[in-house]
Amino acid sequence: MKTIGFCGLPNAGKSTFLKLLTNTEILIANYPFSTKSPKLAKGYFFSANLLKLHSITKTNELMPAYLNFLDVPGLIRGSHQGLGLGNEFLSYLRQADYVLEIVRNFKREDVSHSEGNIDPERDILLIEEEIIQSERKIIEENLLKLKRDQSRKEKLEILNFLLNNLQPFKRFPEFKENLKDYNLLLTKEWFLVFNGELIIDISKFKNLCFKNIYQLDFQLELELQNNQEFQNEFESKLNDFLDNLRRDLNLIEVFTFNNKITQSWLIENNSLIINFADLVHSDFAKKFKYGEVINLKDLSSESSWQFLKNKGLVKQVGKDYLLRDNDIIKIII
Ligand SMILES: Nc1nc2c(ncn2[C@@H]2O[C@H](COP(=O)(O)OP(=O)(O)OP(=O)(O)O)[C@@H](O)[C@H]2O)c(=O)[nH]1
Ligand SMILES: [Mg+2]
């Protein structure tokens, strides 16, 4: 499963977000560098559609799909030179598939800011500059190594191109494959989330380098999870955020169920049913005979597979069937 790593200054709310998404035990504190080592946890997707399906299947067990989220220490001005927990932070973040940048957009006197005041735009630019400096170092080191090896000409050219084109808000996902050994942050896809309740015009951050930009108040969301009273006053935006995130990651949600368990799965858009069989179990792909599929929108209050088949609602499909969002699937082996 893909991993989404958090990137942000100290006290931006990274650990608060991990707690919110994964309910994991983690230290949340009002002083910088409260997180000293990376923490990976599963964030489950209790989507509205999964709950809808479960209300029909009524199985004892419910198993939602998940994504991995990675919390890491904060980044500060000078991190690329090793200040704070700088280099460690960046090496942990390189292990993630995607980067979710978290920017502080809340005021709180008892929570310090490494730059002295709240200014999301400045923080975003600071992160850009730190990341560029750190990537520059890696690129230069590897250019030196490659110059001794004539067989790696293509890589050499790409690295030179990167070096000459490093600038804030520029990303290079097109070189991800060629440069996968280096795990460069600038070849990953980036997302941006403003954490907090302050009013901010997010339009000026659009069309930069972020695949999408979100706004969420982590603290409020956390209180909504834990406090009934809040739930009457405010509406949670967490599920909408997760639904948008999984779409922006180009994932679709599909389902399986039997008489014991209802499950959801996240799989890349444009996957075939045989890819899904492989995701569930490699044996399912090897022994695949055919698939049976019905879309959630065609499901009424009846979940007996035989009944649905008799009504002609279940399609029999071969291994090249292209999955659609909200398909309910049975693999026949
Ligand atoms: N008011 C408010 N406080 C928040 C919000 N998010 C986080 N906080 C508080 O800010 C402080 C820092 O939160 P953390 O989640 O520990 O921040 P972090 O980014 O993990 O910080 P480091 O681990 O030091 O890099 C804590 O006291 C949180 O309770 C928010 O949305 N609103
Ligand atoms: Mg933390």
Task: Give a written overview of the molecule.
The chain is of the alpha/beta class and 333 residues long. The chain has two domains: 3-44 and 66-248, Rossmann fold, CATH 3.40.50; 270-332, Ubiquitin-like (UB roll) (Roll), CATH 3.10.20. 34% of the residues lie in helices and 21% in strands. The protein has helices spanning 14-22, 48-57, 86-93, 120-147, 153-165, 218-226, 228-233, 238-248, 273-280, 282-286, 305-310; strands spanning 3-7, 39-44, 61-63, 66-71, 98-104, 189-195, 210-216, 251-257, 261-268, 290-295, 315-317, 327-332. Strand 8 and strand 9 form a beta hairpin. Helix 1 runs parallel beside helix 6. The longest helix has 28 residues, at 120-147. The model has no long low-confidence stretch (mean pLDDT 91). The structure holds guanosine-5'-triphosphate (GTP) and magnesium ion (MG). Magnesium ion binds next to helix 1. The site of guanosine-5'-triphosphate (GTP) has 25 residues, from helix 1 and helix 6.
Query: According to CATH, what is the class of the largest domain?
Result: Alpha Beta
| CATH topology-level name of the largest domain | Rossmann fold
Helical content band:
25-40%
Q: Order of SSEs, N→C?
A: EHEHEEHEHHEEHHHEEHHEHEE
Give the count of helical stretches. Answer: 11
Question: What structural class do you assign from the helix and strand content?
Answer: alpha/beta
Hetero compounds: guanosine-5'-triphosphate, magnesium ion
Mean pLDDT: 91
> In whole angstroms, how far apart are the ends?
24 Å
Radius of gyration using CA atoms only: 23 Å
Shape, please? Answer: globular
Number of strands: 12
Oligomer: single chain
Q: Architecture of the largest domain in CATH? A: 3-Layer(aba) Sandwich
Roughly what fraction of the amino acids lie in strands? 15-25%
Major beta-sheet overview: 6 strands, mixed
| Strand line-up in the sheet with most strands | 2-4-1-5-6-7
**What count of structural domains?**
2
